[in-house]
Amino acid sequence: MNLDEIIKSDKPTLVNFHATWCMPCVMMKPQLEEVVESIGDQIQYERIDIDQNHELASHLQIRSVPTTMIFQSNELKWRESGIYSSESLIKILSDLLKSN
Question: Which of 15, 19, 25, 48 is catalytic?
């Protein structure tokens, strides 16, 4: 995966780091899908399994999952670990889209 190319976009890129064995990650997946459905093509979305992308997770210092990040124009705009509701993520992304 070449995340460097993806996060260069002017569109906000929602990136969720997860693991298949992580129950909170499984619980958060429908929330993320709801965000993507709601905001649509205004954002990009990537879901990255830390077990399949060790180097990338290490490089970004992912210490717990789920960790969700928002990048725009190659800049980290937001990062948090834990479960977030679709409403919270939609608000964060909407505010970011309005500020552009």
Answer: 25
